[in-house]
């Protein structure tokens, strides 16, 4: 399968990779290509960088996905069937919605949302952002409004944790921590009360008076959501392990980025997620088909010109060596790919990706490869 | 290129207690941290190279780059004047509990509580607090005669969450648990971090538009949280074979005869030039450049350290504080 086919057939494509390799841009360009091919597409990004929004002409983070104007999407021809929405995921909004949805009553939801510690949830609990991404993706998939969703993950080794974030949330609020801060159990044994008093003393010593009590009410209020959270994650996991899903690893030629790609490939395998291939960004692996620099020699009129051509020849030599190295890198990536997976090089777009046309070109270049 | 260009004196930077190396993933931050520590050690300063890694359990690239045999929460000597440590939140928590709780048995009880340990591990702010605390403890550690044991710590910060997470930590911790001893500890850490005579932040970057945009926005954020930016270190500068005259001649030739091979390298050179210009215009700190080298791993670290060294020796000789590029 090529990337074009993938964009036509899949329902969800997740892009993973190190920071700075162009994941967000790749997600956007693929979204543009899929929409222009007639699908109803959502690009979901949790990368806090605002560049994608700028390229798409979106001003601010909104509570809902924003539709890319049709005159922009189809600037160079007749308007087609496809539509493109983009959303810069806002964990706070997603989380608040989730709390409301999963709480039994409005007052139960309020008990969490109005709690002083709720504001610090992301500082207190690792994985909140990742979990918000999972929750949002699950919501959009369940809703069925889009043909294809492209998810751009954060540039961290924890990117795939979004599938396990409920596990991490649960670990934070696991029995032991709950027992530390949990609401009064009504137990009255002397020994138990003595132990509780000791725990209270230690906690007040460490965190300052009052904090432990606050934690206690918060943990108590939050604990009720877990059954619902688990259900959503299981549903999402089913979606993401199905053949409707594909995980693309985005990398640049740098050693560190390649190491991350290998790490992610192993992580996908370990989780039973469908690895669909590599996109090699920022590389010179593609031929540019230009004439040799030496062809300029006959046009040199003086010694400065000759120096200039010699210097260009030198640069061309450096460029060739680099291009060759990048091509062998691409070959290495292509080796041992599972059936149907691909390894493609994106053209080096350099600084051209500042506007929407750049995304259109990149999308076209990726899908004809 | 014979040496790190820019000719900027590192001397004043080496006289700080902590040099925090930050930057986005993929710019070579870890290699540059190693090279800076090796250069400072070679110039005769006792250096502690510290890693602040989000994955405390995984293999350490930084340890491998300087040839450290172990990567753990215990400081290990690597070579003359160079030690290595991987800061660990759990170690910081331990030290914190021992110093905070009034009696030893209470600290022991707290440390034995798996629930408490888990709670301290689970929250990012609490985790970073542990890392900061261990760093603080190491910076404070002194010989019996009062001389600091580690006068210079070079700290490789994680690519995500970078220096800012450390600097905003006190704020979040203080609003989370105002008044507690944790608040006091992080405030002390913040005093160290925000003191420009004791701390310097070095931002690593690449001479390309996006990395430079990110560096500039990081520089602004550092300013907002009061962390002192000392220098920008540009890695992998492409070689420039042109004189201004030959470059102008080439532009004329290409305009008449169209693009030829070498075009991509030429564009890259142009982007690098533009990147350096933008950095110089938008920041007031020195900019150092290191050339792109066909080396990897330890060999690359040693070579980069060599390139950084002459500026150091020059500085010692001239006794100067700062030079301009």
From TrEMBL, chain A:
Gene3D superfamilies, per database record: P-loop containing nucleotide triphosphate hydrolases
Organism: Corallococcus sicarius
AAA+ ATPase domain: residues covered: 9-274
Class of enzymatic activity (EC top level): translocase
Protein name: arsenite-transporting ATPase
One Pfam family this sequence matches: ArsA_ATPase
Entry's EC annotation: 7.3.2.7
Catalytic reaction equation(s): arsenite(in) + ATP + H2O = arsenite(out) + ADP + phosphate + H(+)
UniProt-recorded Gene Ontology molecular function terms: ATP binding; ATP hydrolysis activity; ATPase-coupled arsenite transmembrane transporter activity
Source lineage: Bacteria, Pseudomonadati, Myxococcota, Myxococcia, Myxococcales
InterPro entries assigned to the protein according to its UniProt record, in alphabetical order: AAA+_ATPase, ArsA/GET3_ATPase-like, ATPase_ArsA/GET3, P-loop_NTPase
Annotated SMART domains: AAA (SM00382)
């Amino acid at each position: 399968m090529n990337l074009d086919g993938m964009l036509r057939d899949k329902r969800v494509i997740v892009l993973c990779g190190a920071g700075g390799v162009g994941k967000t841009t790749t997600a956007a360009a693929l979204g543009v290509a899929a929409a222009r091919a007639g699908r109803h597409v959502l690009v979901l990004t949790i990368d806090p960088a605002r560049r994608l929004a700028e390229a798409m002409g979106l001003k601010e983070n909104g509570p809902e996905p924003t539709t890319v104007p049709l005159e922009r999407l189809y600037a160079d021809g007749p308007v087609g069937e496809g539509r493109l929405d983009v959303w810069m995921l806002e964990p706070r909004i997603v989380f608040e919605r989730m709390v409301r949805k999963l709480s039994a009553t409005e007052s139960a939801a309020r008990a969490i949302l109005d709690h002083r510690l709720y504001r610090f949830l992301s500082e207190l609990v690792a994985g909140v952002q990742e979990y918000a991404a999972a929750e949002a993706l699950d919501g959009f998939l369940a809703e069925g409004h889009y043909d294809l969703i492209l998810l751009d993950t954060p540039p961290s080794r924890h990117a795939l944790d979004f599938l396990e974030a409920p596990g991490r949330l649960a670990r934070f609020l696991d029995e032991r921590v709950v027992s530390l801060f949990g609401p009064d159990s009504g137990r009255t044994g002397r020994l138990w009360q003595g132990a509780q008093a000791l725990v209270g003393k230690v906690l007040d010593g460490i965190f300052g008076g009052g904090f432990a009590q606050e934690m206690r009410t918060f943990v108590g209020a939050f604990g009720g959501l877990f059954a619902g959270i688990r259900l959503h994650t299981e549903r999402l996991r089913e979606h993401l392990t199905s053949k409707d899903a594909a995980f693309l690893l985005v990398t640049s030629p740098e050693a560190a980025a390649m190491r991350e790609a290998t790490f992610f490939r192993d992580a996908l395998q370990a989780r039973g997620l469908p690895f669909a291939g590599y996109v090699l960004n920022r590389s010179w692996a593609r031929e540019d088909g230009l004439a040799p620099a030496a062809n300029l020699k006959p046009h040199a009129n003086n010694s400065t010109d000759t120096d200039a051509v010699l210097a260009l020849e030198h640069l061309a030599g450096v460029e060739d060596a680099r291009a060759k190295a990048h091509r062998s890198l691409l070959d290495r990536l292509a080796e041992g790919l599972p059936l149907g997976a691909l390894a493609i090089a994106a053209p080096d777009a350099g600084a051209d990706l500042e506007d929407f046309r750049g995304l259109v070109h990149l999308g076209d270049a990726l899908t004809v490869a | 290129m014979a040496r790190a260009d820019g000719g900027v004196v590192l001397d004043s930077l080496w006289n700080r207690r902590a040099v925090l190396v930050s930057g986005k993933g993929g710019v070579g931050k870890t290699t540059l941290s190693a090279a800076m520590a090796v250069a400072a050690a070679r110039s005769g300063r006792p250096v502690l190279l510290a890693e602040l890694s989000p994955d405390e359990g995984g293999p350490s690239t930084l340890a491998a780059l300087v040839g450290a045999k172990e990567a753990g929460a215990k400081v290990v000597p690597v070579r003359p004047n160079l030690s290595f440590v991987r800061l660990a939140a759990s170690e910081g928590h331990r030290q914190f509990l021992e110093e905070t709780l009034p009696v030893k048995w209470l600290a022991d009880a707290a440390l034995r509580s798996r629930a408490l340990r888990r709670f301290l591990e689970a929250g990012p702010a609490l985790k970073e607090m542990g890392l900061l605390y261990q760093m603080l403890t190491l910076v404070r550690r002194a010989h019996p005669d009062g001389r600091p044991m580690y006068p210079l710590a070079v700290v490789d910060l994680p690519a995500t969450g970078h220096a800012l997470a450390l600097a905003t930590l006190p704020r979040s911790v203080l609003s989370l648990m105002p008044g507690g001893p944790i608040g006091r500890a992080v405030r002390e850490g913040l005093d160290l971090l925000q003191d420009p005579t004791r701390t310097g932040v070095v931002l690593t970057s690449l001479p390309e538009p996006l990395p430079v945009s990110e560096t500039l926005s990081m520089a602004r954020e550092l300013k907002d949280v009061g962390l002192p930016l000392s220098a920008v270190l540009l890695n992998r500068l492409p070689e420039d074979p042109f004189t201004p005259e030959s470059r102008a001649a080439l532009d004329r030739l290409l305009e008449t005869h169209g693009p030829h091979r070498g075009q991509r390298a030429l564009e890259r050179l142009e982007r690098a030039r533009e990147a350096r210009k933008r950095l110089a215009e938008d920041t007031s700190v020195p900019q150092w450049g290191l050339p792109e080298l066909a080396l990897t791993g330890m060999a690359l670290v040693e070579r980069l350290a060599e390139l950084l060294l002459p500026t150091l020796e020059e500085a010692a000789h001239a006794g100067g504080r700062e030079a301009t590029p």
